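Dear colleague,

Thank you for sharing your sequence with our group. We've completed the structure prediction you requested, and as agreed, I am returning the results in plain text so they can be pasted directly into your records. Please verify that the sequence below matches your submission; if there's any discrepancy, let me know and we will rerun it promptly.
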Amino acid sequence: MIKLAARLGLIGPVLFGFIVTISTILKYDFLLSLGWHPLKAPTFDWPSGLALGEYGWIMTATFLLSGLMMTFFALGLRLSLSAVRPAGFGVLFLSLAGLALAGLAFTTDPTIRSTPATWHGCLHDLSFVMLGLTLMPAMILLGCAFQLDLRWKDLSIYTWLTVALALPAFWLKGPAFYVFLLAVLVWSEVTVWRLKSLEN
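Please find the predicted structure tokens below.
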């Protein structure tokens, strides 16, 4: 199960980063029509807006698959870490973050619209808030768990530094949001590689 969790953990961030990048390039004009701009308004209906319009189902599927992969990876991580309290809570929050990411599959509502908010748009917004409230605590707690496990100890400082970099970027929005995404995706891959190496 740990090996499967590691494999899925490797695929999830790469899949998410690849689809978001390619979709942004291919749907550039469509995103501009929503009010998005890569520098002036980088978080305006992005990346959620990629699930709108033609081929939006690809981004919807990516949210769902990436989130479920993150949740499964969290379960594998729990089996590898020492049975300490921070590990249990950290994995719980990471699992919830994965479910919140999967919840982004509920299609968003365009910010600029003349119609009322839809039920799926409200669930999308709620999932985004839950992602922000669970992912960073998960990383902080996992950093504590890494500190207490000799096999993971050298990743604790790296994990906390990633949080210190990503947290302001998440809340400040603007171009800094790209930093948040990149930092979290890289941390995920580094953590997965450690899990994979321990099970080989």
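Summary note from our side: The chain is about 75% helix and 0% strand.

Kind regards,
the structure core
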